Amino acid sequence: MLGLMQSQPLLISSLIEFADRHHGDAEVVSRRVEGDIHRYTWSDVATRARQVANALDACKLQFSDRVATLAWNGYRHLELYFGVSGSGRVLHTINPRLHPDQIAWIANHAEDQVLCFDMTFLPLIQAVHAKCGTVKHWVALCDADKLPQDTGIPGLQSYEAWIGAQSKQYHWPEFDENTASSMCYTSGTTGNPKAALYSHRSTLLHAYAAALPDVMCMSARDAVLPVVPMFHVNAWGIPYSAALTGCKLVFPGPALDGKSIYELVEAEGVSYAAGVPTIWQMLLGHMKPNNLKFSTLKRTVIGGSACPPAMIAAFREDYGVEVLHAWGMTEMSPLGTLCTLKNKHLQLPEEEQMKIRLKQGRAIFGVDMKIVDGDGQELPWDGKAYGDLLVRGPWILGEYFKGEGGDPLIKDEQGHGWFPTGDVATIDADGYMQITDRSKDVIKSGGEWISSIEVENIAVAHPAVAMAACIGVKHPKWDERPVVVVKKPGAEVTREELLAFYEGKTAKWQIPDDVVFVDAIPLGATGKMLKTKLRDVLKDYKLPNT
Ligand code: ADP
User: Fold this and answer.
1) What angle do CA 76, 38, 142 make, to 5 degrees?
2) Fewest CB within 10 A of the end CB: N or C in the chain?
3) Under CATH, domain 18-323 is a member of which superfamily?
4) CA–centroid distance, residue 351 to ligand 1 (Å)
């Protein structure tokens, strides 16, 4: 017997219609590429999203055709989020920090028909447009009078002219909620980019879950600053959850330096911000020497790479901001776990609470997780056993776009498919997951594993170290030994001092064999340390005494 409730597909268009009707006057504020601040409301977003949908109809785009963006976090990008997906097309957000050849490769692979780009990326588009054979419409996200002449890009038009001529009325189509809504290519830190293809259903379920109190806790009383980019994993789904909850949205545009972010937080009364650790490093690096404090910021969600304990402590103790550690990945829409305390933890002393906060957190309802050993046997949740982390759920990838890479799932006895995350983790009895490492970054020394994350966390706890990466280097006896690579400027610490700093903080055999100082640690397209490149840079490096 089936239930007798109304069956309505979960569609992204319903989010923007809801935002328009129920909190149409809530603000959306953006720092623009032009440098000024733009402000309008959710009702304006809805109106202009309808114009986007009409513009796509006028371009004769078919259902499920791909519309690409190369854009910062801003209001026009937000309009495309709703206008493209809501009208049944697929929003393909491209990461502009990828190599130009990779961008052209991705645009071709996705068969993008329209490409909308911020003016920052005009030179990039001029360099790659001839290689993007499927793109028929080029749209610059600017006013008509700002469109440069003679760009060499065929038929280039300004976004404002493109949507400006369109009607503000649009009847959002109704279709199967499993229809593709947006796509994002993995950043390729682990090989060729492959695309996760999200659906309306997966996006809406993720939007509900992300807003929950023990997840990102978003409400109509918040002013939310997603520093995490809209060009990678939909800014962790914040644009959708924001439409659902009616919070004020504040977009940083291209200005991601500490000073600009700080000024925006203060000027717009931001209560909650989300980003990767490298961004917050820059923010704290600006605030400390200038003796600045936050007046409205209460919470920040930090994820994408392990958040160093020193950063959690600095936010909490020096600035009174709660840090929520989060873990996820492109293939997971992206949220998997968030670290919030349970009631029983509130009475614990601060250091005990800190130990919990450092973990990547508890699974969100909708994400099922387990750790397995090399034979695929499930390991206990005792906080000690570590193994490969597998996940399943309605917003987790089933297969990659165009079936690239074959079937990625691992079947269990009941025939359920589990997605292997490539991470190695422990899970404790309370369900808190802690990433030990990425399986390819873990250092295998004498048959034991050393967590590169742990080695890095100790290094950055040293006051003179802002960024550190730990990599394994071949060793004739131990197979691999850890070396910690430290960014030089500001690092007024010697090799010997830093190695001595490890004493008593970790097991002796886990202390790195050497410290290498470099001018810069290479960062990937999503702001994470690029260890593949670092290993390349240090390919001729030899461990002392080998
Ligand atoms: P990529 O395309 O590089 O895989 P993702 O953004 O999908 O980019 O990265 C997902 C990976 O990032 C995870 O599998 C994990 O290794 C790492 N990661 C994400 N959040 C955290 C975190 N809080 N702590 C440690 N690692 C994290």
Assistant:
1) 45
2) N
3) ANL, N-terminal domain (3.40.50.12780)
4) 26
Residue 244 is classified by DSSP as H
Ligand 1 near 186 CB (within 6 A):
yes
pLDDT in tens, 128-155: 999 999 999 999 999 999 999 999 999 9
From the list 487, 482, 514, 509, the residue with the least C-alpha distance to 498 is 514
Strand partners, 462: none
CA of 284 to the centre of ligand 1 (A): 22
**Cβ-Cβ contacts under 8 Å for 186 (sequence gap 6 or more):** 193, 194, 195, 196, 330, 331
Model-level pTM greater than 0.70? yes
What does DSSP say about strands 157-158 and 299-303: parallel, antiparallel, or unpaired?
unpaired
Closest atom of ligand 1 to CA, residue 438: 16
Domain ranges of the chain: 18-323, 443-537
Residue with tokens 């280039």: 156
Q: Could you tell me if the CB of 442 is within 6 A of ligand 1?
A: no
Tell me how far the alpha carbon of residue 388 lies from the centroid of ligand 1, in angstroms: 14
Asked if residue 189 has its Cβ within 6 Å of ligand 1, the reply is yes
pLDDT tens, position by position, 523-534:
877 778 888 888
Catalytic residue among 17, 177, 268, 331: 331
